[in-house]
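Lab notebook, bench 4. Continuing the backlog of folding jobs that were queued last week. Each job is logged with the same field layout so the records can be merged later without manual cleanup. Today's entry covers Dolichol kinase, a 233-residue chain. Filled in by technician R.K.

JOB TYPE: sequence-to-structure
TARGET: Dolichol kinase
LENGTH: 233
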Amino acid sequence: MIFWVAFGSIAVIGFHVLLKVFLHGKGDLATSLHLVRRLQHVISGFIILALHHFVQHQLGLIMVLVPTVFFFIFDILRRKYIPELNKWFISHWETLLRPHEIYDSPPAAFFFLAGITCTFFLTQVRPITELSVLFLSCCDPAASIFGILIGGIKIAPKKTLAGTCAAGLVGMLCSLYIGYLHSIPYLWLYGFPVAIFSELISVPYLDDNLTIPVFTCMSFQLLSKLDLIKFPL
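JOB STATUS: finished
OUTPUT FIELD FOLLOWS
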């Protein structure tokens, strides 16, 4: 277990360092789209999925729970009790932080881990877990990027029609892949509406990184209970 937790953490941190070097000086577009944060979002999810592929569900749960707890403790210490720790953190990881996350609230990375951890608690069905992680890792960044690039009609606070449709299309592609991987016919048909639902639903005071995987998981669980989708255990 220690190996998998350490390996995953090193992989995520190492990728971020390489990404910072690659995007250094790339101009305003990378900054406006928050490319470092978006790509870190995607790759972190892929790393978790890759590690989860090699372990049993319980070990996978521990693999995401341990970093989530440590991250929470670290975040409380750096924001509330140890200013020097916060200065060090900002100097190395500011590209992953929104302005309010520097002093006032936990960063999106914590809610990202917390959302995936909740999913592991909610279900042991591997395809549902994989879909929840993929929707969080891919659909949410797609919605943000296309919402910024295209803009247009707003259909909810901080949600555009273009971004929401992008999330739905990416969700359909993710569902097509998982359906192929686990031999689940027509799973892709449900990927589009589930991705849109998970993207649009906002819960006051809760970050999207927490709610998207949870709503994705619950939606596919409901579809399974209604016998609309047959998931292998």
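OBSERVATION: The longest strand covers residues 154-156.
SIGNED: R.K.
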